[in-house]
Design brief:
Strand content: 35-45%
Organism: Lysinibacillus pakistanensis
GO molecular function, one term: ATP binding
Structural class: alpha+beta
Bound molecules: adenosine-5'-triphosphate
Distance between the termini: 36 Å
InterPro entries: AAA+_ATPase, ABC_SmlMolc_Importer, ABC_transporter-like_ATP-bd, ABC_transporter-like_CS, P-loop_NTPase
Keywords: ATP-binding, Nucleotide-binding, Transport
Protein name: ATP-binding cassette domain-containing protein
Length: about 325
């Protein structure tokens, strides 16, 4: 789906929180990155219809979702969007099943609800917990249920507002990988707000960097990293926790995604990496099938990795130490 924003702006009283924003978004996994208070949440809420812009237009493909001129404003529940927040609230007195089923009334025929709940509980690896109450689950498990609940309505777009910031580092990485997998599997798009640069670099197809209510840059992680548009972006991205040995994930289009060692990536899992002479030799499993080798070469600003399978170069990426 193409999400188009034309001159979307927002004032709270006299405070201009978003300056006219123009964006066309088509990528599957988009992150919005920026310092606290730069307007990330406000932009998400505007997309979801929970906050009304002061002016501008929003279209999803050719459908006008919001237009200040035409007085068009499609209601949140008709936008086919779901939101996952950090401080999601599950109903404490309802079972997990009821928590998810609740939002499906009127969307899924009654007899189809158990099957849908099963499907999403499977996706988030929470099968078997349907009869429990939220209080019986850990924070991470509750977060999975919140994700399942969002997925259950079969949205075209899922908006994540710092959903992982309350989790500890290990759980956070695990959830990052799982969310990426789930979004890859489902026919939907995601916009993910974070102020964690590494998280944005790791997860996104496209990154929007915001600064004080404006778009500072939009691009792939590689573009933003290699060619920051402004000193602010350079400084902000410079804080990324770049790579540890064996921490590369490679995608066919050459976009680098970086994860910590041991993390399972969709495209390549680093099994072992050793430094031999001036090169890293990296053994990797690619797309669950083949044993392969990387050769990594130090270059001016970092490392260049090339992955060969049967002597044919299939993936390449560059990155910093
Ligand atoms: N309902 C509101 N009324 C008045 N001001 C608001 C309101 N909501 C947000 N703001 C202000 O708008 C600005 C942007 O807030 P927003 O929550 O969108 O930022 P953010 O980038 O998501 O920040 P954080 O990373 O801290 O969540 C802030 O200065 C905030 O104080």
């Amino acid at each position: 789906m193409k999400i188009s924003l034309t001159n979307i702006e927002k004032k709270f009283g006299h405070a201009q929180v978003l300056w006219p924003i123009n964006l066309e978004l088509e990528s599957k996994f988009i992150t919005i990155l920026g310092q606290s208070g730069c307007g990330k949440t406000t932009l998400l809420k505007i997309l979801a219809g929970l906050e009304q812009p002061t002016g501008g237009e929003i279209r999803f493909d050719e459908t006008m979702i919001y237009s200040s001129k035409l007085h068009q404003n499609i209601k949140p529940n008709k936008r086919n969007i779901a939101m996952v927040f950090q401080d999601f609230a599950l109903w404490p007195h309802m079972t997990i099943f009821q928590n998810i089923a609740f939002g499906l009334k009127g969307i899924v025929p009654k007899e189809g609800i158990p099957e849908r709940v099963q499907y999403v509980m499977n996706l988030v690896k929470m099968k078997g917990y349907e009869k429990r109450k939220p209080g019986e689950l850990s924070g991470g498990q509750q977060q999975r249920v919140a994700l399942a609940r969002a997925l259950a309505t079969n949205p075209k777009l899922i908006l994540f507002d710092e959903p992982l910031s309350a989790l500890d580092a290990v759980l956070r990485e695990q959830m990052q990988a799982e969310i990426m997998q789930i979004i890859d599997e489902l026919d939907c798009q995601a916009i993910f707000v974070t102020h964690d640069q590494t998280e944005a670099m790791t997860m996104s197809d496209q990154i929007i960097v915001m600064e004080a209510g404006r778009i500072a840059q939009i691009g792939t992680p590689e573009e933003i990293y290699l060619a920051p548009a402004t000193p602010y972006v350079a400084d902000f991205i410079g804080k990324v926790n770049w790579f540890e040995k064996g921490s590369y994930i490679v995608r066919p289009e050459g976009v680098s995604r970086i994860q910590r060692p041991g993390t399972i990536a969709k495209f390549a899992t680093i099994i072992k990496s050793t430094f031999v002479g001036d090169r890293y030799l990296v053994q990797a499993e690619v797309e669950g099938k083949q044993w392969s080798f990387y050769e990594a070469q130090p270059i001016e600003h970092g490392i260049k990795l090339e992955l060969f399978i049967d002597k044919k170069q299939i993936y390449q990426l560059e990155g910093s130490h």
